[in-house]
Inverse folding.
Protein backbone atom coordinates (compact mmCIF):
# COMPACT_ATOMS: atom_id res chain seq x y z
CA UNK A 1 0.00 0.00 0.00
CA UNK A 2 1.29 3.42 -0.89
CA UNK A 3 2.32 5.57 2.06
CA UNK A 4 3.10 9.25 2.42
CA UNK A 5 5.18 11.18 4.91
CA UNK A 6 4.84 14.95 4.62
CA UNK A 7 7.06 17.50 6.34
CA UNK A 8 8.14 21.12 6.21
CA UNK A 9 5.07 22.91 7.47
CA UNK A 10 5.10 25.54 10.17
CA UNK A 11 4.10 29.02 11.22
CA UNK A 12 5.03 31.82 8.83
CA UNK A 13 4.13 35.47 8.44
CA UNK A 14 2.10 36.79 5.52
CA UNK A 15 4.39 37.10 2.53
CA UNK A 16 6.73 34.41 3.78
CA UNK A 17 7.86 31.18 2.17
CA UNK A 18 7.93 27.48 2.97
CA UNK A 19 9.08 24.34 1.22
CA UNK A 20 7.06 21.20 1.85
CA UNK A 21 8.48 17.74 1.26
CA UNK A 22 6.86 14.35 0.89
CA UNK A 23 8.41 10.92 0.75
CA UNK A 24 6.36 8.27 -1.01
CA UNK A 25 6.78 4.54 -0.44
CA UNK A 26 5.00 1.36 -1.43
CA UNK A 27 4.57 2.23 -5.09
CA UNK A 28 6.54 2.65 -8.27
CA UNK A 29 6.75 6.38 -7.76
CA UNK A 30 8.55 7.31 -10.96
CA UNK A 31 5.62 6.26 -13.14
CA UNK A 32 2.76 7.99 -11.34
CA UNK A 33 1.48 11.53 -11.23
CA UNK A 34 2.14 13.30 -7.95
CA UNK A 35 0.11 16.00 -6.29
CA UNK A 36 -0.32 18.24 -3.30
CA UNK A 37 -3.70 18.75 -1.64
CA UNK A 38 -4.70 20.98 1.22
CA UNK A 39 -7.56 21.06 3.67
CA UNK A 40 -8.45 24.17 5.60
CA UNK A 41 -10.60 24.02 8.74
CA UNK A 42 -14.22 23.47 7.80
CA UNK A 43 -13.41 22.97 4.13
CA UNK A 44 -13.08 20.08 1.75
CA UNK A 45 -9.70 18.82 0.69
CA UNK A 46 -8.64 20.50 -2.53
CA UNK A 47 -5.98 19.79 -5.12
CA UNK A 48 -3.34 22.51 -5.13
CA UNK A 49 -0.83 21.26 -7.70
CA UNK A 50 0.09 18.18 -9.67
CA UNK A 51 3.09 16.99 -11.66
CA UNK A 52 3.35 14.24 -14.24
CA UNK A 53 5.68 11.29 -13.73
CA UNK A 54 8.52 12.73 -15.77
CA UNK A 55 8.25 16.11 -14.12
CA UNK A 56 7.79 17.92 -17.41
CA UNK A 57 4.22 19.05 -16.96
CA UNK A 58 2.60 20.69 -13.97
CA UNK A 59 -0.84 22.02 -13.13
CA UNK A 60 -1.94 24.43 -10.44
CA UNK A 61 -5.14 25.53 -8.83
CA UNK A 62 -5.88 29.19 -9.52
CA UNK A 63 -5.06 30.06 -5.91
CA UNK A 64 -1.58 28.59 -6.31
CA UNK A 65 -0.59 29.92 -9.71
CA UNK A 66 2.40 32.21 -9.65
CA UNK A 67 3.14 31.52 -5.98
CA UNK A 68 3.60 27.75 -5.62
CA UNK A 69 5.94 25.44 -7.50
CA UNK A 70 5.62 21.66 -7.45
CA UNK A 71 8.60 19.46 -8.23
CA UNK A 72 9.72 15.89 -7.77
CA UNK A 73 12.85 13.80 -7.42
CA UNK A 74 12.11 10.31 -8.67
CA UNK A 75 15.45 9.01 -7.42
CA UNK A 76 14.38 9.93 -3.88
CA UNK A 77 10.67 9.08 -4.25
CA UNK A 78 10.00 12.65 -3.20
CA UNK A 79 7.57 15.43 -3.99
CA UNK A 80 8.11 19.06 -3.09
CA UNK A 81 5.94 22.15 -2.91
CA UNK A 82 7.70 25.48 -2.80
CA UNK A 83 5.34 28.15 -1.53
CA UNK A 84 6.01 31.87 -1.57
CA UNK A 85 4.02 35.07 -0.99
CA UNK A 86 1.96 33.13 1.51
CA UNK A 87 -1.41 34.46 2.59
CA UNK A 88 -3.58 33.70 5.62
CA UNK A 89 -5.97 31.82 3.33
CA UNK A 90 -3.17 29.35 2.59
CA UNK A 91 -3.49 28.10 6.16
CA UNK A 92 -4.32 24.40 5.94
CA UNK A 93 -3.02 20.91 6.40
CA UNK A 94 -1.12 19.94 3.27
CA UNK A 95 -1.07 16.37 1.96
CA UNK A 96 0.69 14.68 -0.90
CA UNK A 97 -0.78 11.91 -3.02
CA UNK A 98 -0.21 9.98 -6.23
CA UNK A 99 -2.55 9.20 -9.11
CA UNK A 100 -2.92 5.89 -10.87
CA UNK A 101 -4.48 6.63 -14.22
CA UNK A 102 -7.41 8.87 -13.32
CA UNK A 103 -7.69 7.89 -9.65
CA UNK A 104 -5.85 9.39 -6.72
CA UNK A 105 -4.82 6.99 -3.98
CA UNK A 106 -7.48 6.60 -1.32
CA UNK A 107 -5.16 6.52 1.67
CA UNK A 108 -3.48 9.60 3.03
CA UNK A 109 -0.58 10.55 5.22
CA UNK A 110 -0.82 12.72 8.30
CA UNK A 111 -0.13 15.85 6.34
CA UNK A 112 1.86 18.86 7.43
CA UNK A 113 0.27 21.93 9.01
CA UNK A 114 0.87 25.34 7.48
CA UNK A 115 -0.25 28.42 9.39
CA UNK A 116 0.11 31.85 7.85
CA UNK A 117 -0.22 34.63 10.37
CA UNK A 118 -1.62 37.98 9.29
Amino acid sequence: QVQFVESGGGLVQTGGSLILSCVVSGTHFSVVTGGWYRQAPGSQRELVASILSGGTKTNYADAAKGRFTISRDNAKNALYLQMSSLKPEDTAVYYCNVKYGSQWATNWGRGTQVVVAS
Q: What stands out?
A: The CA atoms of residues 83 and 114 lie 10 Å apart. The radius of gyration is 13 Å. The chain has no helices and eleven strands. The first strand starts at residue 3 and ends at 7.
